[in-house]
From TrEMBL:
It is found in: Cell membrane; Membrane. Residues 266-317 are annotated as: Disordered. The gene is tatC. This is Sec-independent protein translocase protein TatC. The Tat system comprises two distinct complexes: a TatABC complex, containing multiple copies of TatA, TatB and TatC subunits, and a separate TatA complex, containing only TatA subunits. Substrates initially bind to the TatABC complex, which probably triggers association of the separate TatA complex to form the active translocon. One of its GO terms (molecular function) is proton motive force dependent protein transmembrane transporter activity. Keywords: Cell membrane, Membrane, Protein transport, Translocation, Transmembrane, Transmembrane helix, Transport. Belongs to the TatC family. GO terms for biological process: intracellular protein transmembrane transport; protein transport by the Tat complex. NCBIfam families: tatC. It comes from the Bacteria. The chain crosses the membrane at residues 29-47, 94-119, 131-153, 180-201, 213-231, 237-259. One of its GO terms (cellular component) is TAT protein transport complex.
Length: 317
């Protein structure tokens, strides 16, 4: 009974002291870290299979299928690359890196839920609905960007390997190759979230679809510059592979924003008015319905025979 008496009733609106907020943040961070570590330990037992998933497409595209001694007898005009590793601790370092990255990615449902559970009590019902919708759309968009990078990387590798001078064998360190693939996957995945961010601003009433459409020229230029800077490689092929889908998704987001603005306009015709601008008044006379009769006042008799009301004085008064 004593323990139940001390138990605090949870505020339905999520209000709590600062110390309680910090304690909840600590607990949710601890759960997220534990999930990442557990998945990373499991991934460590399968890290060779994970590396093979990233290495196989590039090896099929540009890998040399012969030994170093046989390379000297091949046609010098045909370039290829040999995947290598250097150093005694190189394989162990690569295993740790691949395991941690795998743990972070594969445990994302757990730490995303912890993040959502920490933020959700401070959101209104409508904001929760929008937030859940954006999270549900953000995961497939990130996965689509990551898969697009994984699909386009072999083609980009073929373009890059052709710059190798004739008669020279290109050695590809495996750790650098994994870093390149990981960065491309993350950059492409996050870049595919840009249209979702614009839609969030539009649904929140911060940015209109018409204004987004008016920014299409600087937006296309900005996306192209971003692709040139964010792409780990220096070839224009990878840059256009990243910029093209983002530009297409941008115009899709603009179209959705314009449809959403029209929907809001029909629901609220005065939505586009400034804060200090008066809305037009409808002065059309409205029909008046039938009047209702007033209830009769209770009567009260007096000693002198005068007719009085229930308020304690007679009608003459």
């Amino acid at each position: 009974m004593a323990n139940s008496a001390r138990k605090k009733v949870k505020d339905p609106e999520g209000r709590m002291p600062l110390v309680e907020h910090l304690r909840e943040l600590r607990n949710r961070l601890a759960k997220s870290v534990v999930a990442i570590v557990v998945v990373a330990v499991v991934a460590a037992f399968y890290y060779k299979d994970i590396i093979e998933v990233f290495k196989h497409p590039i090896q099929q595209a540009i890998g040399c299928q012969v030994s170093f001694s046989e390379l000297s007898q091949k046609d010098a005009t045909k370039t290829c690359g040999n995947i290598t590793m250097s150093g005694l601790v190189g394989p162990f370092t690569l295993m740790v890196k691949v395991s941690l990255v795998s743990g972070l990615v594969l445990s994302s449902p757990v730490w995303l839920y912890q993040l959502w559970a920490f933020l959700a009590p401070g959101l209104h019902k409508t904001e929760k609905k929008y937030a859940l919708g954006f999270v549900a759309a953000g995961v497939p968009l990130f996965a689509a960007g990551a898969y697009f990078a994984y699909w386009a990387l072999p083609a980009a590798a073929k373009v890059l390997i052709d710059f190798t001078p004739s008669g020279v064998t290109n050695l590809l360190p495996l750790d650098e190759l994994i870093d390149l693939v990981t960065r491309l996957v993350v950059v492409f995945g996050l870049s595919f979230e840009l249209p979702l961010l614009l839609m969030m601003l539009n649904f929140g009433g911060i940015l209109s679809g018409r204004r987004m459409l008016g920014w299409w020229r600087p937006m296309v230029m900005g996306v192209t510059v971003f692709a040139a800077v964010a792409t780990p490689t220096v070839d224009p092929f990878s840059m256009f592979l990243l910029a093209g889908p983002i530009i297409v998704l941008y115009f899709i987001a603009v179209a959705i924003a314009l449809v959403n603005d029209k929907r809001k306009q029909r629901a609220n015709p005065d939505r586009d008015l400034d804060d200090d601008e008066a809305a037009p008044l409808d002065l059309t006379p409205q029909p008046i319905g039938d009047s209702e009769p007033l209830p009769a006042l209770p009567e009260q008799s007096s000693t002198d025979g005068a007719h009085s009301t229930g308020r304690g004085y007679d009608d003459a008064t």
